[in-house]
Structure formats: C-alpha cells, structure tokens
C-alpha cells in the first residue's frame, strides 16, 4: 500500500475513516447551506458572522470539559452519543427550513446547540486515533483524518450549491441539504458500532478528580513547543478560518454571483486543503518548522486572495490558501498527538481545539462586520496581515524562551524514534 494511505491497512481505522468521510461530506453540505440560509433570511454579513460565532463558541467554552470527558470515559462511547447529539439539531433546523417557518433566531439557537455536540465530541475524536493504530502509523492516520475532513470540504460545498440551485436557491432548498447532513451522522455511528474492540488499544482511563483541567493546562505550559503551536493555531483560527463569511461575501457582493458559484469556491478551497493533508500523510514525523513556514505562507496567500480582480483569479488562489492552512493544521495536530503523554492526550487535544476552533467565534462577528462595512477585500487583506504578524511574534517569543531554533526543537525526539527509544512525556527544550 502507498505510504500515503498505509494506516488504512488497519481494519478498525479503515471502517472508522469511511464513516467519518460520509459524515464530513454531510457536515460541509450543512455549513454551506446554513450560510446560504442566513443570507436568504437577512442578506447580512454580520448575521453570518454571528451564526458562525455561535456555532463555534461552545468549542471555546466547553472544550476543556470535552477533554476531561475523553480522558475519563471510554472515547468510543462518547463519540457514539455525540453523533446523536449533533444529528438532532441539524434535523430540526432542516425541517424548519423545509416547512418555511424558519427564522433567524432558530438558526442562531440551533447553531449553538449543534456546536455543543461538536465541542464535546471533538477532543474524543482527536484522541481516539492513537487507540486504533500503532505509533508508527499515527502521524499518517492523523493526516488522513485531515484529508477526510477536507475531502468533505471538497465535495460538500459543491454538492450543496448544486442541490440548493436545483431546488430554487431559496430557503426550502437549504433545508433539504441540512436534513441530509442529519442523516449522515448515522454512517459515523454505524462505523463506530462496527469497530472490533479487541483490536483497539485504549489509553488507561483517568479516574475522576478535581483539577483535571488545570493539570492539562500546567502540562502544556511546561512545553514551550506546545505553547508555540497553540499560539500559531490561535492566529490561524482567529484571522484565517472565516472562509464561510469571506467567500460568501466575495461571491455575492464583489462578483455578483449566486449559490452555485459560492459552493464552487468552497470546493476549490478544499482542493488545496486535501493536497496539503495528503502531503502531510507522506511524512513519517511532523516538524515544527512546517507549522511556522506554512503559517507564514498562509498569511501571504490570504492577502493575495483579497487583491484578486476577478472571480476566476480569486478561485485560482484559494487552493494555495487551503494548502497552507491544512499543512499547518495537520502538522500541528500530529505534533500534539505524537508528543503528548497518553494520559494527557484528551486534555491537550481539547486545548488545541479550544484555541484553534474556539478563536473563530471571537473574530467572526468582527470579520463579518469589517467585510460588510469596509468590503470583503479589506477583510481578507487585514486578516492575512494580522495572522502573519501574530505567528512571527510567537516565533520570536519561542526563540527567546528556549534559545534554540524550531529545527533544533524536535531533534532529540526524532533521534529517539529513529533508534526505537521511548519518548519522554515531559520532553521540553529549555
């Protein structure tokens, strides 16, 4: 089997990956349809930003609880329960839209409820991967998870745009697409049911105790490499992950186009994202310098996208945006998973998600407001500059804190892996 897909040779992971792919396609169909629904109801970029913020706000508020849950309860059980928790609000929103009674406050409320399910599910999902594959395949499996996510992003928006357009480009069409997403969680649930528990190697469950969240925070603070990763993904998430807002407004306000063209932009972005994930899957080990290099490259192409004069040139730059974003995110995720102590993986993954995904709600309304008042182009250029500046400052802090460069940071860790030695859980550079 190709090195890019080697972890699919593991039966449990293969089954899990198929279910996740179906669910990911459905999720991106819903996100596209939900954004179009808000525009149909309001025509407001600010309302679009508020919707995105409400959907992601639970990640900021509840990820630490989800991390503790992942470390203290069987992860497979958590994942099965949360598939249901996400399917219900999606189904309700879809039915409200199909029946024509949906209002903006319905969207806000159900986006928030849906976000609660995602916030509690994500740390278990992130930290469940090491329980299905051996250490040698872990980096590959983490990268293929990103590839699955971005395959969903590649297929979902385009399919959603076509379906909405075929159904009249109105509220009813968005409702049917959202209902399809509710059904897609059944595939993920079925895959989890089909896993062979004998072939899983779960981490020891940590008994309930006070201070579990703070214990995870202290662990991360003791690791300058993890702190740098979290700062980088904070700036990437806060200033670079607002594609639902910027692409929607670029398609409608700047280029004067409709739902189908907006959906195509999401799929074009995902082409680069999928390529970035597959390239990451070929690397045996993740390296911090890839996180930093990809983050700075993202800032450059984000600024360039805001300067593109036509729909076609804007679409042509989006694959580079996707490539740099996912190269950075996949490498950061793999570093988090592979260098954290097993008993801490759920909580470290939760902090990663809280910072990466949870930073979006803090900025989404501001990005939406800036795009509405100053124009989508200004919003793209400004967020690109802010992301690049933040990553550069974080890198400067790291160099000052450790006295070493990013290249030297993981040399001891990689040397130990090459020689088959155990990697200490508390490995840090001082």
Automatic annotation (TrEMBL):
<feature type="transmembrane region" description="Helical">
    <location>
        <begin position="15"/>
        <end position="39"/>
    </location>
</feature>
<feature type="transmembrane region" description="Helical">
    <location>
        <begin position="226"/>
        <end position="250"/>
    </location>
</feature>
<feature type="transmembrane region" description="Helical">
    <location>
        <begin position="348"/>
        <end position="371"/>
    </location>
</feature>
<feature type="transmembrane region" description="Helical">
    <location>
        <begin position="81"/>
        <end position="102"/>
    </location>
</feature>
<dbReference type="InterPro" id="IPR010290">
    <property type="entry name" value="TM_effector"/>
</dbReference>
<feature type="transmembrane region" description="Helical">
    <location>
        <begin position="288"/>
        <end position="308"/>
    </location>
</feature>
<protein>
    <submittedName>
        <fullName>Transporter, major facilitator family protein</fullName>
    </submittedName>
</protein>
<keyword id="KW-0812">Transmembrane</keyword>
<keyword id="KW-1003">Cell membrane</keyword>
<feature type="transmembrane region" description="Helical">
    <location>
        <begin position="159"/>
        <end position="192"/>
    </location>
</feature>
<feature type="transmembrane region" description="Helical">
    <location>
        <begin position="45"/>
        <end position="69"/>
    </location>
</feature>
<feature type="transmembrane region" description="Helical">
    <location>
        <begin position="314"/>
        <end position="336"/>
    </location>
</feature>
<dbReference type="GO" id="GO:0005886">
    <property type="term" value="C:plasma membrane"/>
</dbReference>
<dbReference type="InterPro" id="IPR036259">
    <property type="entry name" value="MFS_trans_sf"/>
</dbReference>
<keyword id="KW-0813">Transport</keyword>
<feature type="transmembrane region" description="Helical">
    <location>
        <begin position="377"/>
        <end position="399"/>
    </location>
</feature>
<keyword id="KW-0472">Membrane</keyword>
<dbReference type="Pfam" id="PF05977">
    <property type="entry name" value="MFS_3"/>
</dbReference>
<keyword id="KW-1133">Transmembrane helix</keyword>
<feature type="transmembrane region" description="Helical">
    <location>
        <begin position="262"/>
        <end position="281"/>
    </location>
</feature>
């Amino acid at each position: 089997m190709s090195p890019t897909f080697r972890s699919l040779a593991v039966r449990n992971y293969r089954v899990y990956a198929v279910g996740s792919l179906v669910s990911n396609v459905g999720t991106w169909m819903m996100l596209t349809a939900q954004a179009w629904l808000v525009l149909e109801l309001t025509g407001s970029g600010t309302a679009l930003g508020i919707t995105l913020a409400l959907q992601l706000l639970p990640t900021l508020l509840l990820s630490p609880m989800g991390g503790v849950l992942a470390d203290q309860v069987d992860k497979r059980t958590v994942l099965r329960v949360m598939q249901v928790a996400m399917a219900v609000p999606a189904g309700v929103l879809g039915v409200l839209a199909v029946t024509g009674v949906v209002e903006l406050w319905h969207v806000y409320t159900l986006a928030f409820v849906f976000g609660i399910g995602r916030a509690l599910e994500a740390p278990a999902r992130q930290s469940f991967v090491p329980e299905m594959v051996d250490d040698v395949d872990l980096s590959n499996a983490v990268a293929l998870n990103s590839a699955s996510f971005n395959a969903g992003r590649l297929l979902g928006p385009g399919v959603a745009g076509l379906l909405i357009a075929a159904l009249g480009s109105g509220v009813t069409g968005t409702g049917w697409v959202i209902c399809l997403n509710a059904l897609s969680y059944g595939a993920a649930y079925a895959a989890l049911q089909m896993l062979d528990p004998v072939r899983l190697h779960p981490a020891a469950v940590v008994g309930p105790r006070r201070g579990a969240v703070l214990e995870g925070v202290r662990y991360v603070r003791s690791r300058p490499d993890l702190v740098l990763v979290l700062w980088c993904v904070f700036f990437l998430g806060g200033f670079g992950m607002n594609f639902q807002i910027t692409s929607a407004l670029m398609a409608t306000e700047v280029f004067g186009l409709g739902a189908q063209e907006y959906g195509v932009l999401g799929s074009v972005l995902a082409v680069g994202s999928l390529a970035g994930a597959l390239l990451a899957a070929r690397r045996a080990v993740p390296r911090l310098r890839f996180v930093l290099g990809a983050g700075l490259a993202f800032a450059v192409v984000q600024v360039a996208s805001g300067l593109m004069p036509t729909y076609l040139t804007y679409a042509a730059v989006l694959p580079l945006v996707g490539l740099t974003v996912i190269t950075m995110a996949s490498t950061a995720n793999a570093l988090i998973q592979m260098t954290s102590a097993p008993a801490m993986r759920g909580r470290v993954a939760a902090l990663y998600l809280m910072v990466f995904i949870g930073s979006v709600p803090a900025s989404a309304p501001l990005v939406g407001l800036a795009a509405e008042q100053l124009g989508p182009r200004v919003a793209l250029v400004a967020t690109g500059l802010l992301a690049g500046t933040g990553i550069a400052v974080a890198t400067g802090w790291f160099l000052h804190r450790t006295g070493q460069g990013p290249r030297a940071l993981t040399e001891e860790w990689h040397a130990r892996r090459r020689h088959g030695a155990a990697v200490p859980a508390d490995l840090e550079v001082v």
